[in-house]
Every structure is written in structure tokens, then in C-alpha cells.
Design goal:
Strand content: over 45%
CATH architecture: 4-Layer Sandwich
Structural class: alpha+beta
Oligomer: single chain
Helix content: 10-25%
Distance between the termini: 70 Å
Number of domains: 1
Order of helices and strands: EEEEEHEEEEEEHEEEEEHEH
Number of helices: 4
Radius of gyration: 19 Å
């Protein structure tokens, strides 16, 4: 069966402040969130388009529906398409928005789908469907924090997502894993996601681990991040505010 997504080559560069350099053959293309691009070589043109360009989101109404879902969840209406219009291979690079790790996943090796945090997606080969998905469980909906709105990446090509800090990969074989809601990067089909109370009322309010935890169970692969951006931002603000008060005093 022929691939639906373009077969792009890539190289991940750097350690703690990574970027991914994607090599495009003539007429190959890659899609990305607005603002992710670092540099492009000559012959590569880029254009903001409504929709991801996949067959699943073809036609005006398909693009409009996809854009509407992104707007409802705070995402941009448009995605940027980068296409090599030249006659030889050219490169385009995308950088993560905060210190961490870029993960490259061939969707054909993971059931043609990845569910990830909505802010984790960086770029993907043209032909990948990028859509929002809402957790069906009320608990996850009301208390999931970052985990409430998830993003579905479907296709048979390479996708690139980023994680804050160190990336951890876990294989579930019928077990249940409990994690901080912000530490979840993504998981494969076969993994069920829900929210549970983090413990007793005393632990919830004074334990410092948040009121709720994400539970991941079933069979599949889970990727976690050691430093969610929200946690880093909270720490920076907690240090900055006392200093601001001191300076004003």
C-alpha cells in the first residue's frame, strides 16, 4: 500500500536546546505550527493555509471544520506549509519553544496515530492529519489541566513533537501509570487516559503534587517530560515576584 504522507529525511541537532532539520526532495512538503521555523534554504516556499493538507481534511468544509476545532481550543486557524519547489534537495529547520527534547516518531510503527498534549506538536510530513480530540471522561475534562485537550496525529509518516527537559519512554503491558498531568507528552492507541484524585485531602492541598493525577493504563507506549513548561514558568514567577516587591520597597 502506497504511503499517504511524504517520506521526509531529518536530523535532530543539539542537546538541551534542540532543533530538527528536515530534508525535502523536490515537491516534498512538511507542515508546522506557526512560529516553529528556524531557517529555510533556497527553493523552499512557505505559505499559511487553512488545514493540514491531508486527505482526511480535504475540501473547503473539511478545512473549515479542522480550523474551527483548533480555534475552539486556542490554537491558530492556519498551519504553515513548507514545500521544496526546486530541483534538488533542500532543508528547513524547526526549533522547540523551550529547553528540552525533540522526539521523531514514524506513525506507521505505532498504529498510524499518536495522541499528544496540544502544545507538543512541532511539525510533520505533509499528509499527516492534525486534529483536536477531547477526552470522553468527565473527570479528565474538568480536572485534567493540560491533559484535557489532546491532539491527534494520524498518518503513516514522520511527526515531530517536543518535550520539556528530559524525555522518558514507558511501555505499558496492562499496567497503570500515574503521572502529573503536565508531564504527559503523548501515547499510542491502546492506552486509556483518565484523571484521579492525587490522594487524601491533606495530600491534595499540602503535598505540592497538584490536586489530580493522570492515569494511563492498557497496552502501548507513553512518552513523558521531566520539565513541563507550566512548571518552569511557575518557578520563574515565584522567584521573580519577591524580587520585584523587594526592589519596589
Amino acid at each position: 500500500m502506497a504511503k499517504q504522507s511524504h517520506e521526509v529525511d531529518y536530523e535532530i541537532i543539539g542537546n538541551s536546546m534542540q532543533l530538527v532539520e528536515v530534508e525535502l526532495d523536490p515537491q516534498e512538503a512538511v507542515i508546522a505550527e506557526a512560529g516553529a521555523m528556524s531557517y529555510i534554504e533556497q527553493d523552499i516556499i512557505f505559505e499559511a493555509k487553512m488545514g493540514d493538507g491531508s486527505e482526511m481534511e480535504s475540501g473547503f468544509f473539511g478545512k473549515l471544520l479542522g480550523a474551527g476545532k483548533r480555534a475552539l481550543t486556542g490554537e491558530g486557524l492556519f498551519m504553515t506549509h513548507f514545500t521544496n519547489e526546486g530541483h534538488q534537495k533542500r532543508k528547513v529547520a524547526f526549533a522547540a519553544p523551550n529547553p528540552g527534547t525533540i522526539l521523531a516518531i514514524d506513525l506507521s510503527e505505532y498504529g498510524n496515530e499518536l495522541i499528544c498534549q496540544k502544545d507538543s506538536f512541532l511539525a510533520a510530513a505533509l499528509g499527516t492529519q492534525v486534529s483536536m480530540t477531547f477526552n470522553r471522561r468527565l473527570g479528565a475534562g474538568f480536572f485534567g489541566g493540560e491533559g484535557f485537550i489532546l491532539q491527534s496525529l494520524k498518518g503513516d509518516g514522520n511527526v515531530f513533537v517536543h518535550a520539556g527537559g528530559t524525555l522518558i519512554k514507558k511501555e505499558l503491558n496492562g499496567e497503570t501509570l500515574r503521572v502529573d498531568t503536565g508531564c504527559l507528552v503523548g501515547f499510542t492507541p491502546g492506552v486509556e487516559y483518565d484523571i484521579e484524585r492525587s490522594g487524601s485531602l491533606k495530600s491534595m492541598f499540602f503535598g505540592g503534587e497538584g490536586l489530580f493525577l493522570a492515569t494511563l493504563s492498557g497496552h502501548g507506549t507513553v512518552w513523558l517530560q521531566s520539565l513541563p513548561f507550566s512548571r518552569m514558568a511557575d518557578r520563574i514567577l515565584s522567584q521573580a515576584l519577591p524580587n520585584m516587591h523587594t526592589e519596589k520597597g
